[in-house]
Design brief:
This protein folds into two domains: 38 residues, no CATH class; 61 residues, 434 Repressor (Amino-terminal Domain) (Orthogonal Bundle). 62% of the residues lie in helices and 0% in strands. The protein has seven helices and no strands.
Amino acid sequence: MRKMNIDTIAAAIEKDVGQAIPGLKQGLREMQAGLVGEKHSPEQLLVRTARATTGLSQQAFARRIKTPVATLRDWEQGRFAPPGAVLCLLKMLVNHPELAEELVA
């Protein structure tokens, strides 16, 4: 099997989805090594990416979006998917992290 260029593949995937994907390169390395990696849903990745983009802790991000921190943890760990309206908000925060400041008021 030919060794894949992790950086090139990750860049192509992220370009295709239009955003950075936390943990992508690590997942590709695990795949290349034949390890079974964790499975993540698109919703789970969106929650993690939105929070990472804003630079907020779980507690601060949960307060900002008026959600219990336990619910945010469930979303990030893939136990439950966020409702549709929350998914829309998260997409907006990924593309415009400055909007998180407007949620304080």
